[in-house]
Amino acid sequence: MPFLDHLADEGVTEVVFAGAIRRPRLDPALFDPRTMQIVPRILNAMQTGDDAALREVLAVFEESGLSVRAIDQILPSLVPAEGLLVGEPSERDRQDADYAARIVAGLGPLDIGQGAIVAQGLCLAVEALPGTDAMLEFAALHRDLRPNAKGAKGVLYKAPKPAQDRRIDLPTIGPDTVRRAAAADLAGIAWEAGGVILLERERTLADARAAGLFLWARG
Amino acid sequence: MPFLDHLADEGVTEVVFAGAIRRPRLDPALFDPRTMQIVPRILNAMQTGDDAALREVLAVFEESGLSVRAIDQILPSLVPAEGLLVGEPSERDRQDADYAARIVAGLGPLDIGQGAIVAQGLCLAVEALPGTDAMLEFAALHRDLRPNAKGAKGVLYKAPKPAQDRRIDLPTIGPDTVRRAAAADLAGIAWEAGGVILLERERTLADARAAGLFLWARG
User: Fold this and answer.
1) Is B46 left (phi over 0), alpha (psi -120 to 50) or beta?
2) How far is residue B48 from each of residues A14, A99, B116, measured CA to CA in Å?
3) A121 vs B49: CB contact, 8 Å cut-off?
4) Under an 8 A CB cutoff, do B121 and A48 touch?
5) Do the chains contact at B106 and A102, CB–CB below 8 Å?
6) What span, in angstroms and rounded, lies between the C-alpha atoms of B163 and B55?
7) Cβ-based contacts of B120 with chain A (< 8 Å)
8) R_g of chain A, CA atoms, integer Å
9) A125 to B120: CB separation less than 8 angstroms, yes or no
10) Closest by alpha carbon to A73, among A164, A166, A8?
11) Which domains can be identified in chain B, with CATH numbers?
12) Where are the beta strands (DSSP E) in chain A?
């Protein structure tokens, strides 16, 4: 809570969340008494999944008088609107992206993750707690499972969960995503237009072009 | 097709499917002309996911006059009914199994896989094309992500997809599953009672007992 007091002292009235979120290993010995009071509700929420935990985090900020803004209200250029940014998915890639999008939407109510990898109509991997990078490493490890070695290479698809608060924990794509998607031999990366943050845009686009991956903000 | 003719010649009228199923890399040069005729439908079905592909396989056998039986009609002892076989899940383990069961049921219409791993209310992994062993290896790799290192260790849950034909591709548990679940530091293995094949029952139970894992055919 000293952190929230500090924001108030500095005259901060609005906050925006950015960056990766990790579940902390909390050490109660480090809490001041006021922080200690909010620990039980955060801990409870953490045990019921991402969405609930993050809603509690937002509530804590809002209750202390701060207004939480969405990142695309502050820096709209970070969240690409519909369109092809690099390359061109094949018809088969588009089918794989469609199926992956259905999977991510279907996973939404289960509060599991924000991504899936589909190749040749088959789901190679689903994002869970370990995150997108771990999922891409998993897909790289098992890339020989595609039924047709010369067929469609597959698509990483990312989207927010249908019911999540879009002011926090938007999925993110950047140079690391491109590097790992190339290592997994994918054809490209697709995502929900308006729902995903594209980091280091120029470098990400250049890396994708160099690796022969498409980048597609799918409508 | 020569294989189906051979079964008819031998007077076989009933078949039962057992064992792991891998998507074959088909080499058209190896097909005889009659087999070639069924290749397009199998290939088409393979591209729409497991359930469709396996339904086509069953249809091919049935159209040639064979009756396809479920494994629990032949060897009911392979498919445990409800009950605890080894150990005792804690209340928290039961909650993890409940959530994992909801995930596997929810994944069903998406035709992704037949398993999930949940620890402390969080989904560590979802089964996809690479299968249960690959999912367990993934969970072992990321086992440090549990928020509370001393908390519940987590549960592997397996179940048939809600809409699948139970005469083929029932999920399977055996000594390998136990070994990998122990390597992933899980508390135990739960599955849908009546819907999962338990291989090498005595050895699997003994191994689970030795590793301190529960085995639970969940009702």
Assistant:
1) alpha
2) 48, 10, 22
3) yes
4) yes
5) no
6) 11
7) 47
8) 19
9) no
10) A166
11) 2-69 (3.40.50.20), 76-218 (3.40.140.80)
12) 14-16, 67-69, 83-86, 115-119, 122-126, 155-158, 172-173, 188-192, 197-198, 214-218
Q: Which residue in this structure is represented by tokens 């396996």? A: B54
What is the ipTM metric for this complex?
A: 0.86
Place of tokens 């069961």: B101
> What whole-number distance in Å separates Cα of residue B164 and Cα of residue B158?
14
Non-local CB neighbours of A97 within 8 Å, separated by 6+ positions: A89, A118, A155, A157, A190, A216, A218
Closest residue to B128, CB basis, from A47, A106, A125: A125
Quote the CA–CA distance of B119 and B24 in Å, as a whole number: 34
- Residues of B contacting chain A (CB within 8 angstroms): 23-25, 46-49, 102-103, 106-107, 109-113, 120-126, 128-130, 134, 138, 141-142, 145, 147-149
- Contact at CB, B103 and A120, closer than 8 angstroms: no
State the nearest Cα–Cα gap between A216 and chain B, in angstroms.
23
| A23 Cα to chain B: minimum distance (Å) | 6
pLDDT in tens, A32-90: 877 777 777 777 776 666 777 788 888 888 988 899 999 988 898 999 999 999 999 99
pLDDT (tens, 9 = 90+) of chain B, 219 residues, equals 678 888 888 889 999 887 766 666 667 677 787 777 777 777 777 666 677 778 888 888 888 889 999 998 889 899 999 999 999 999 999 999 999 999 999 998 898 999 999 999 999 999 999 999 999 999 999 999 998 899 999 999 999 998 888 888 899 999 999 999 999 999 999 999 999 999 999 999 999 999 999 999 999
CB of A214 closer than 8 Å to CB of A88: yes
Give me B13's structure tokens: 């009228």
Strands A67-69 and A14-16: parallel
Amino acid identity for residue A154 in this structure: G
**Helix intervals (H) in B13-115:** 33-46, 50-63, 71-74, 91-107
Tokens for B31, please give them.
């097909």
Distance in Å, alpha carbon of A145 to nearest chain B alpha carbon: 7
Question: Could A142 and B148 be called an inter-chain contact, meaning their C-beta atoms sit closer than 8 Å?
Answer: no
Give the nearest chain A residue to B113 (CA atoms). Answer: A123
Q: Are B139 and B20 in contact (CB under 8 A)?
A: no
Chain A residue at shortest CA distance from B120: A47
